[in-house]
Design goal:
3 domains, 0% strand
Length: 364
């Protein structure tokens, strides 16, 4: 067989056999795969159309060439070329891990509740013990200031104590006031809050002691206030209607100066009456001071008249009257000071006993 014939027959891929038997069969149209229209597929479709048109322009007897062109038109489009596995839906992923999350959270909650149930009662007891220790220290500090307070009381109520020394008593009173404030602050500060559903019995047991402390702190503060009022009272009345040395006779110019000094003393005395503390123990003495101001007003007029009349005898009598008036005021103060000492001393002794009891009654 002629090689060219063989090659021609092979090139026609079986077409020669069909021609030999007298049947010409047209090539079937190429099979295509439908895919969504994308930019890439659109471009490939155009290429396929061009290839198809090229195949149509090829003569029918060039079967091998036609098959090759058809293969190039359709065989290059792989339907799985752009396929990728889709991710699992997030909801599905959550469902897959849901049980583990629930179990972990449940174990954590159970562990926390168990730990709280075991440790919280002990924590409450420790908190109560710490509070009780603070209360005891505050009460003991207040009690330690009472001896110095008694010394202040004695010096204040002693009539012979110079008024200038009364200011030395103020630091001791300040310490007493600070200690009483500390007791009140400890008694009124909020207690620690226990965890929910945890009994707070140990902390609740402190409430009676807290009430007692608040009352004792207020009592100590009242004592400090009374002593402070006593110091103020004595300091204010020390120079009440004090006009200094008075002459029985004087020149005209000197009389004007003396008259001005007497008027100043009267104004100062009136102002002192308005500033005096309102402690009841000094009520009678305050009344005596008020009467003394009225007596002094009449006395001042008579004394200035005696000086101008150069009546030395009358002037001397008036000077003696004024001195007697001042002495009577000092004498009237003694019973008031004694009453103040008795009143405050009893309060100090009572406070001392109650402080001892309060410390002993604190929960252990």
């Amino acid at each position: 067989m002629d090689p060219s014939t063989t090659e021609d027959h092979g090139g026609k891929s079986g077409q020669w056999f069909l021609e030999a038997v007298g049947k010409a069969v047209e090539a079937p149209p190429p099979a295509t795969i439908l895919e969504p229209a994308t930019e890439e597929s659109a471009g490939s479709d155009v290429a396929d159309d061009v290839a198809t048109e090229e195949a149509a322009s090829v003569p029918a007897d060039s079967t091998s060439e036609l098959v090759g062109q058809m293969w190039r038109a359709t065989g290059t489009q792989d339907p799985l070329e752009n396929w990728e596995p889709a991710d699992l839906d997030r909801h599905v992923s959550r469902k897959r891990n849901f049980r583990w999350t629930v179990w972990i959270m449940a174990f954590l909650v159970i562990g926390a509740v168990t730990a709280a149930a075991l440790l919280s009662p002990q924590l409450v007891e420790r908190q109560a013990a710490s509070e009780a220790s603070d209360y005891s220290a505050a009460l003991a500090d207040l009690r330690s200031n009472l001896p110095a307070t008694q010394q202040v009381l004695r010096a204040l109520t002693e009539p012979d104590t110079p008024v200038g020394e009364l200011s030395n008593l103020v630091p001791d009173l300040s310490r007493l006031q600070a200690a009483s404030d500390a007791v009140i602050a400890a008694a009124t500060r909020p207690l620690p809050e226990p965890l929910p559903f945890i009994p707070s019995g140990a902390l609740d047991d402190l409430q009676p002691s807290r009430d007692t402390m608040a009352r004792l702190g207020a009592d100590a503060s009242a004592i400090a206030d009374q002593l402070g009022d006593g110091i103020s009272y004595r300091s204010l009345v020390a120079a009440f209607l004090d006009v200094g040395e008075l002459p029985a006779a004087a020149e005209t110019l000197d009389i004007s100066s003396i008259q001005e000094r007497l008027a100043t003393a009267l104004a100062d005395a009136t102002g002192t009456l308005a500033q005096l503390p309102g402690n009841d123990v000094f009520a009678e003495h305050r009344a005596a001071l008020t009467d003394a101001v009225e007596i002094y007003t009449a006395w001042e007029t008579n004394y200035i008249a005696a000086l101008r009349a150069q009546d030395d005898a009358v002037a001397l009598q008036l000077i003696a009257q004024h001195e007697d008036l001042l002495t009577s005021l000092d004498t009237a103060l003694v019973p008031a000071l004694a009453a103040l000492r008795s009143q405050i001393d009893e309060r100090i002794l009572t406070l001392d006993r109650e402080l001892v009891d309060a410390i002993e009654e604190l929960p252990n």
